Amino acid sequence: MLARLSPDVRQYLLITGNYWAFTLTDGALRMLVVLHFHQLGYSPLQVAMLFLFYEIFGVVTNLVGGWLGAHVGLNRTMNIGLALQVVALSMLLVPTAWLLVPWVMAAQALSGIAKDLNKMSAKSSIKLLVPNDQQGALYRWVAALTGSKNALKGVGCFLGGALLTAVGFAPAIAIMVVGLALVWLLSLALLKRDLGKAKAKPKFRDIFSKSRAINQLSAARMFLFGARDVWFVVALPVFLAASLGWDHWQVGGFLAAWVIGYGVVQSLAPYVTGRRGGKVPDGRSALGWASVLAVVPAAMAILLLQGQSPQLVLIAGLTVFGVLFAINSSLHSYLIVSYAAEDGVSLDVGFYYMANAMGRLLGTVLSGWVFQRFGLAACLLVSAGLVATAALASVTLPRHDREGVVPP
């Protein structure tokens, strides 16, 4: 069946398959680490610190990885990412007594490098598989990749909670090691060589973007993802388990449903935001959708502080937040690929996802600290402030010109 498809479609499916497999293990690993180490008695801030190197090395990887992809090809950076994730997972197969904070942080550091190499490679590759004059198709392809990835991340969250309940921490990790190793071997054999290698070799100083639009969009992305992770990474799962008494599979199932729904909406975002006049989004779209999103966590925090039912507020509020956040994220993912230069695309995309990783780092640290000191409502208020800052960063993003084209 694959042989009857065009070469570009075959590569797109291979890239998407790699990204799916990686994302499944990434979502499961995060849930396993949060719940397992909370069960061992770690405080919320200590659990957050386990992910510190994951996010820090994600920042570095996106900067250096974009330059590396332009030099050696995106196929190689994607395969390196898969291999590093296998190693990171294998590091957690040691006896429980060896799972000390420095060792787990080192494994998470490798996983962070792996995740962002894989992500940067997948997003950059699509720019090269869609003609530059087909922006609508580019938006749909990016939305489909991003949305399906996040749906699989949700499945991974559920898988992590379910496996921890059913077989325990170490057997769950072993299952993921075997599965991802098989995917890595298939990728080595089938992924196109030299995909995304730049014709003009960029210098190392070129890792920093010179485009005003990309710098502004990157700033907006940083605050947007900080706004999500300030409640999502540590505060919400610990609150559900410790304050509401939910079991591991219930916590994993709820977060899985949220992320799956978020991924589905991301895939459908082109039909929501691009239907009027057949246009693709621009900076005005990013500003408008971020402004609407900022209202939701603020309203949730106020309701919690007024003593409303936490379960009702969280389930209803986070459903609305997830829909709006998915549209914002999908808009951003399209705009960065659209703004990026075609030759050496991974440089611009890598810089942008460096800002994404900085937002996750900010949100992760704040999630543990703010929740431990002030509670979940405070995390949601911080989230509202970060989204509002993302909206401000989007004010002067490029708009459509008269021909409906967003200038670079």
Protein described:
This protein is mostly helical. The chain is built from 14 helices and no strands. The protein is globular, with a radius of gyration of 20 Å.
Helices and strands in order, then pairings?
Blueprint: H1 7-39, H2 44-50, H3 52-72, H4 74-91, H5 101-129, H6 135-166, H7 169-190, H8 212-232, H9 235-243, H10 248-273, H11 283-305, H12 310-339, H13 345-374, H14 376-393
The overall average pLDDT, rounded, is 79
% residues in beta strands = under 5%
Oligomer: single chain
Q: Approximately how much helix is present in the residues?
A: over 70%
Distance between the termini: 38 Å
Order of helices and strands: HHHHHHHHHHHHHH
Features:
408 residues, mainly alpha, 14 helices, globular
Q: Can I get a quick summary?
A:
The chain is 78% helix and 0% strand. The protein is built from 14 helices and no strands.
